[in-house]
Amino acid sequence: MLRQNVIDLGWIERALWLALEPRAEEEEPHVIEDFEYHRPVLQREVLGLLKPKPGLLIVDGTCGGGGHTEALLQSGADVLALDQDPDAVRHVSEQLAHFGRRLIVRQANFRHATTVLDELGLGTIGGGVLLDLGVSSRQLENAQRGFSFVQNGPLDMRMDPRTKLTAAKIVNEYGEEELTRLFRELGEEPAARRIASLIVKMRRTSPFRETLPLARAIEKLVGRHGRHHPATQVFQALRMEVNDELGALEDGLRVFTTRLDRGARIAVITFHSLEDRIVKNFFRDRSREWLDKPEWPAPQRNPDYDLKLITPKPVEPTEEERRTNPRSRSAKLRVAEKT
Asked: Are strands 300-301 and 332-338 parallel, antiparallel or unpaired?
């Protein structure tokens, strides 16, 4: 859980928004109670590139609904499934309990994988690592999690409820310049300054506590243009800030690369340009054996050289998958191997 260089909050989110249009200003959308996880994206490509083998451990750092986890287990690999969302941990633990000791599930942000591996006495990872980034359909559908701009709920957006920073705290306490930077950099929102200015003005008399008042204020300011909800990019930026998603990705890439056995692979699925750029640059920088600069008398060996690129260009979904699984439309898969 990309779309023209910004994250698409999901086909379910857009479908719900369209289905609810038009509505009276004071009317709240019907709350969906039967929450489901999306189908795993690029599953065939992940299995083909990770090459799971019986008896080897693969870490699924974002197990979510367990789709990739189950496929890896079915291939014969053992799996350590991590997720910072307690709902995902419960779901995977229950749904895949029949795999017994071949599956270990832990609630943890993948940036803290070192702690989990150490607690389990696992020195290295022999099979590989998978990170499927973004927000899940289940999180979007549950209004109480605060990710949705079409269903009312608390301005929360924490994937891990144990953390302290919420979207409400950001919206009500960040300064105008901080909000502008946030919306511009993480949301790539053209109206970032106007939206930040509006938020600061409105919160003086009535702090934002719920999702719909914020979404409607943005919609009133920016206006509707096609099917793209005007609050999409602001909500994206808030979610990424609350969960420090880019920082976690940078940490996770370093942690997992260090713990991989030689020949094991790391696969990352991204959904927008900011994430993909981090993965692309990390894999590139760690796969250069030699470094050279004009001021150097000779090339020097790269001290960080420990990866080999498996996918020089990202793997993208087939047209068939894009039709049958709309969430996959902007997915990009990059894979590297430990040398």
From this structure: unpaired
Q: What are the φ and ψ backbone dihedral angles of 160, each rounded to 5 degrees? A: -115, 105
* Pair 242, 166: CB distance under 8 Å: yes
Cα dihedral sign, 194-154-135-53: positive
Which residues face 129 on adjacent strands?
Answer: 59, 266
Is residue 6 pLDDT above 70, yes or no?
no
CB 184 within 8 A of CB 195: no
Distance CA 103, CA 126 (A): 15
Q: pLDDT tens, 159-200? A: 999 999 999 999 999 999 999 999 999 999 999 999 999 999
Helix (H) or strand (E) holding 185: helix 176-185
Using DSSP's 3-state secondary structure scheme, residue 38 falls into coil
* Cβ atoms 262, 273 nearer than 8 A: no
- The answer to whether residues 136 and 38 touch, using CB atoms and an 8 Å cutoff, is yes
Is the pTM above the cut of 0.90? Answer: no
Check residue 36 and give its pLDDT: 53
Show the CA angle centred on residue 170, arms to residues 166 and 173, nearest 5°.
Answer: 125
* Mean pLDDT, residues 45-57: 96
**What totals of helices (H) and strands (E) does the chain contain, helices first?**
14, 9
Quick: pLDDT tens for 14-37.
444 433 333 333 333 333 344 455
Of 231, 155, 222, nearest to 194 (Cα)?
A: 222
- For residue 114, the SS3 value is helix
Q: Are 318 and 45 in contact (CB under 8 A)?
A: no
- Cα 114 to the chain's mean position, in Å? 20
Cβ atoms of residues 307 and 284 within 8 Å:
no
What span, in angstroms and rounded, lies between the C-alpha atoms of 265 and 291? 23
